[in-house]
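Bit of a strange request maybe. I'm writing a small parser for C-alpha cell strings and I need a real example to test against, not something I typed by hand. Could someone generate the C-alpha cells for this chain?
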Amino acid sequence: MSGVVPEVPVSLRGARVALSHDWLITWRGGEKVLEAIAELFPGAPIYTLFHQRGAMPEALEQHPILTSALNRIPGARERHRLLLPLMPAAIRGLRPREVDLVISSSHCVAKAIPVPRGAKHLAYVHSPLRYMWDRFDDYFGPGKASWPVRVAARTLRPALRAWDVVTSTGVDRFVANSRHVAQQIADRYHRYARVLHPPVELERFIYTSLEGLGQGGYFLCLGALAPYKRIDLAIEAFRQLGLPLWIAGSGQSKQWLHALPKNVKALGQVSDDEVAELYRGARALVFPGVEDFGLTPLEAQACGRPVIAFGAGGALETVTPQTGVFMTEQTVAGLVEAVRRFEAFEAGFRPDRARAQAQTFTREAFQQALLSELAELMTG
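Reply from user aminoacidic:
Good idea to test on real output. This should exercise your parser:
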C-alpha cells in the first residue's frame, strides 16, 4: 500500500461511492488496480459476482463486499468461467443504491452494473468482455475446452458481444489501462477512453545493488497460466535452445507443465517474497503472450531485469529498446530468434535504465490521475 495517498478533490468529498469488480477470487493485476482505487475511498462497498473469503489482502477485505446470486452455487468460484452465460443477469442483479458515483474495474461484465438515476459511472477497463472478443479462441478454441463448452460458447458469442456493446451506453466515462485497450473500446463501443496505466509496486520490486542480479542464470515465465499467455511457446523454444527456463504460477493451462524437458522447471504458485527474488535472479523475464497491459514486465524492470516480449499489446507501452528485446513473430521460431538476439543485447543492458522505466508507473501518479478524471466527471 502507498505511503502517500493523494487528497480527494473538493468535488468528490462527501460523494457516496460504490465499486464494481468482476470477481474477487485470485490476487492478480486487476485486483491490484482495484485495491489502489479502493484506497482512495475507505469503506466504499464493492459489488462483485464471486468472492473467495481471505483471497484478497486485508485492505480490500475490510470493505463491505456484496456478491451475486452465483456466489451461492456450490463450486461456482472454482469453475466460474463456465457460468459466463449467467453473468449478464447476475451483474444486473447487483444494484447499488443511494450512491453518487460508481467506479467499475472490468475485464468481463463489471462495467454493466446498474447505476442509480442521477449517479455517475466511470469504467476502468482492463479489456472489453475478454472471453468473447479477441481472446475467444484462446479460451474456447480447439483443445482449450470440451466440445460441448466450445459449441455453447460459439452459439452464445454473438448475443454476448451485442449485450456488451449495449451496456457500454450505461458508462459516463471510460478509462483504459493501455492504448491497446483504448483502441478496442473505440472499435467495439465507439467511445473515447483516456489511457491510465496501472501502477507497479515499486516498494516491493526493488534492488539495492547489482550484486546477485541475473546471477541465477535462468530465464523466467511468471504469472497466471491462462491460454493467451502462450507459455507453450516458451516451453518448446527453450527445449530447442537447451537453456534453463523456470515457470512460476498456476491456472487453467497447467497441462502445459506435463512432461517438461529437463531444462524447464515448474515452480507452481509462489509467495510475494519469492516472486521478487525470482525476478532479481533471472537473466530475463520471458513474456510471449499478448497482454492488454501486463504488470509482470514492469515488475521485472523494477527489479533491474530485462524482458523478452512479443512486440504487441501492452508490452509496447512498458518495455523499451533499452530494457528488453521484442519477438517479431508469436511463434516458437520467433522466440528462439529473440533469445539469441538477447544474448548480444545482454552485454550492454543497464539495470538502472530498467528501474527508471518502471518508476514512471507509480501508484501515486495513478491515483492522482484517476481522481482528476473523477473530479471532471462529477463537475461536468
